[in-house]
Specification:
The protein is mainly alpha-helical. 65% of the residues lie in helices and 0% in strands. It folds into two domains: 67 residues, no CATH class; 76 residues, no CATH class. The chain is built from eight helices and no strands. The longest helix has 18 residues. The chain starts with a helix and ends in a 13-residue tail after the last helix.
Length: 169
């Protein structure tokens, strides 16, 4: 069983990725269930965890912000640099956990943010490097190692605000 701290991070990551369109509502409900099992608890989290897969798409937009707020976590609206940075950090943790290949990680970052987000600009450049490997002097392993180092940098620097950015109405 995961610790409550790890469960809070995982739940926050699922919520953040859902908020920016990188995760499904049913995955958020699954993460709420996992958080409950790990020992996190609040009325909003229980209500969210009780959603069925059929209800998730409809209910998560209303239930997620209060559940996060009750746990002292942050709801990131779709627009905003803080949400994009939090999503990049969540994707970095997924890559480090083996859920994404380094090239898929850089591709998703590059497609979503291009070279415009300062926090992930180097990852966008590394995605470009994957495209020119056959013409350059670097190997896939070398680029993968640099991507992994960037992912570790992102994952180690959460910079998530402690107060919610959007409170329930």
């Amino acid at each position: 069983m995961m610790s409550t701290e790890a469960a809070a991070i995982a739940f926050q990551d699922h919520a953040t990725l859902w908020s920016v369109g990188e995760n499904s509502a049913s995955n958020v409900v699954d993460a709420a269930c996992d958080a409950l099992v790990a020992g996190l608890d609040s009325p909003g989290l229980r209500i969210l965890a009780a959603c069925t897969r059929a209800e998730a798409s409809y209910d998560v937009p209303d239930l997620l912000p209060p559940a996060l707020y009750e746990l002292g976590l942050t709801f990131y609206p779709y627009a905003g640099e803080a949400g994009r940075e939090a999503a990049a950090r969540a994707l970095a943790r997924r890559m480090l956990a083996g859920e994404l290949e380094p090239s898929e990680f850089t591709y998703r970052i590059h497609q979503r943010y291009g070279h415009e987000l300062p926090l992930t600009a180097r990852l966008a450049e590394l995605d470009d490097e994957y495209d020119i490997l056959e013409y350059g002097d670097r190997t896939v392993e070398e680029v993968n190692a640099e991507v992994t180092a960037e992912a570790r940098r992102l994952a180690a620097d959460p910079r998530a605000p402690t107060a919610p950015t959007d409170t329930p109405s």
